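Methods — Computational structure assignment.
A single polypeptide chain was analysed. Its primary sequence is given first, followed by the predicted tertiary structure written as structure tokens.
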Amino acid sequence: MTDDRLDHLVRDADPYRIHDLHGADQELLEEIMAVRKPPRRVLIPLATAAAVLGVVGAAAVFVHQRDTTEYAAPLPNISIAAPDAADSYAFVLKAAEANPRLLIDEPGWKITSVYGFADESGDIFFAKGASSLDITWYPAKYYQSYYDDRLQVSKPEAAAIGDWPGDVFTYSAGDFALMLHARDGMFAELRTGGTWTRATFDAVVKNVERVDSKAFLAAMPPEVVTPDKAAEAANKVLADVPMPPNFDTDALLGFGTNDPYQFGAQVTGKVGCAWIAEWERADKAGDKAARKRAEQAMRSSHNWKVLKSMVDEGDWAESFWEVADKVAKGKIPPAWQQGLGCD
């Protein structure tokens, strides 16, 4: 989870506002604990969010002080076959049709994070210097509740992107959101982050345009994992990750389009879910050897290169290790399915 994404969720889930948060509080906790897509939720009161963040931070310090040689595990033999290229491209084109497909047509703006193309909601982050812009889309059925929520922020001011009307809400002198009206089964919100003035926001909005699916996909950074790259990316992620028995590798090919961090979180989440399910099966069957293998596999996650590479970018690795450490001690944590985003 990027800092911009966390800031966005914290602002939407302000604990001092007494009106209905319409799920923003649960989305915040989900992002803190799992960096996973909705509707998976961690059922903890919002008032504990700061405490959760504190626990995660403390855990991060703790795990990095350990001697990771104790987490050694046999390396797996990974080979996931790539899906048909034409089918993959058709899948991602269809997914792109269901999102706003908004791009900033102004020099200097770059896409820094992408998440959620296979879902009804998602995010695209743009950045330029000290400014960032998050474009989030949601199902149209939530439009009115979000709109009512924004009315608690400020009086709406009419605005538009091309022929797509919306309303600007002002959170502060340097914090704005343009909420576009529901259409085509979804609605979108553009939210500022970093350094802005109302003048610069209005100027950028004038340069946001909606493009077709092919142009939108062509604008994605090369490191973004699209369905046609998913098999190669998954093989790289899993190069030093022990695989659970009878693991369905096809489950790693349907995440849509994501930046490497989000893709890595989803892949390791699936693997972690499968290992814990195997632990539970072995424990119920009295299979001590299989249970020990599952514990060792989860313990070895402290050595997985993909998780170690994610530490400075978000909280997924630390959250995963908290769950893994409990499993390694034979103690399955409550709500682990929500924590790892298991189906």
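Note: The radius of gyration is 21 Å.
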